[in-house]
Design goal:
By secondary structure, this protein is α+β, with helices and mostly antiparallel strands. Helix content is 45%, strand content 20%. The protein folds into 2 domains: 174 residues, Regulatory protein AraC (Jelly Rolls); 111 residues, Arc Repressor Mutant, subunit A, CATH 1.10.10.
Length: 292
């Protein structure tokens, strides 16, 4: 689970020449009955429900949990449920907030550039239809998380990396809007939801029987369907996710092995190293040395 975080980025001429640049990323968890927004933003981005807000760049907001309401000058107030992405278009007044009974968790990225203007001008994303229900889309979730991790690390060249991730998010939203995955497959929808929950909680211990009940499905049917659709049991899928995330952290950060083990949900560094070597053929330390 991420901690509340946001950053507004300075955009240089080099980023503008790239054709797409990111100017803001963030994540916020808003608890039921909590004041919204629960983070203090610059005055230019201040948002209240009564007066709304107008921005000068494009934004994608992804609601991964909870529900709320969204409205704009071109769209009446509509309900927003978890699994919804909504677009904020430049110079279009908008407002949104979580429902006080549920709260919500939101990720966002702000972006612009001449390539973005071309995409929007070609009609891929319509300002009159700003909401896209992507469901429990694990790839979009992980892309938002990767955006935040890369901005936190801020290694050389990161503006171009986060621009590329933003394009991937746009690609996934466009694909989902046009080719809804599992639209006629209720079991597929439940397994997609399970995969999303596993990705969202990959740093934590998960009780798969409890997860099956949450869907809801019987555990035997859940395990069988999950393996048919993913090729792995739920527990192995969860473990592979944690080990692959550890590999990414070894490649992209300067965190030590202990810190990486903790961030990927392993309480024992010895157990982490043993499982990492079994999957990747080398210890975490050796893997980092080979890829430096």
């Amino acid at each position: 689970m991420c901690s509340n975080y946001f950053k507004y980025l300075n955009v240089t001429l080099e980023e503008e020449r790239w054709g797409i640049y990111v100017n803001s990323v963030g994540y916020s968890k808003v608890d039921p009955e909590e004041h919204y927004p629960n983070q203090k933003h610059p005055e230019s981005h201040s948002l209240t429900w009564n007066r709304g807000r107008t921005l000068h760049d494009y934004y994608i907001v992804f609601i991964s949990k909870g529900k709320g309401v969204f409205g704009s000058s071109v769209d009446p107030a509509v309900e927003v449920v978890e699994g919804t992405c909504f677009f904020l278009h430049p110079n279009v007044q908008h407002r949104y907030k979580p429902h006080p009974d549920s709260g919500w968790e939101e990720y966002w990225v702000g972006f612009n550039g001449f390539y973005v203007e071309k995409l929007m001008g070609n009609g891929f994303f319509n300002s009159e239809k700003p909401l896209v229900h992507v469901g429990h889309h694990k790839e979009i979730l992980m892309l938002f998380r990767n955006l935040i991790e890369i901005v936190k690390t801020s290694l050389p060249g990161y503006p171009q990396q986060i621009a590329a991730l933003t394009l991937q998010i746009l690609g996934h939203i466009n694909t989902t809007a046009n080719y809804l995955e599992y639209s006629d497959d209720p079991v597929g929808k439940l397994i997609a939801k399970a995969k999303f929950i596993i990705h969202e909680s990959f740093q934590e211990a998960l009780d798969m029987e409890q997860l099956a009940r949450q869907l809801p499905m019987g555990y035997s049917a859940f395990r069988k369907s999950f393996k048919q659709l993913t090729g792995h049991s739920p527990n192995q899928y969860h473990l592979n996710l944690r080990l692959n995330r550890a590999k990414d952290l070894l490649n992209s950060t300067i965190l030590n092995i202990n810190e990486i083990a903790l961030q990927t949900g392993f309480e024992s560094v010895f157990y982490f190293s043993k499982l990492f070597k079994k999957k990747h053929g080398v210890s975490p330390r050796s893997y980092r040395a080979l890829n430096e």
